[in-house]
């Protein structure tokens, strides 16, 4: 990965497109946003693969991330709460929680920060009528 300096931050050209990173949100994604997005994105994609493998069909999944930062320690991320809202038919909360625990163990981003950032996951289901 090659990062290039620009006036208000840095830029990287990835296969999917340009990514601008800056401490000023007007000029790019803030580093903490990218950190939270990679943790939520990794967790969700692993979770979804597990659900597909078990043939658990879901119609939609939304993840809300609440972030706690410590202003006394360079605004470091201390905690991320990921709340999953899963919509579908005949959903089993117990099975979903078990699969979420398996996803956590297999998500490289969560595993990379688990000793320095507290990550809590919760979920709720929305049963759709046919």
From TrEMBL:
InterPro entries for this protein: KH_dom-like_a/b, OsmC/Ohr_fam, OsmC/Ohrsf
SUPFAM superfamilies referenced in this protein's UniProt entry, alphabetically: OsmC-like
Name of the protein: OsmC family peroxiredoxin
Organism the protein comes from: Lentibacillus salicampi
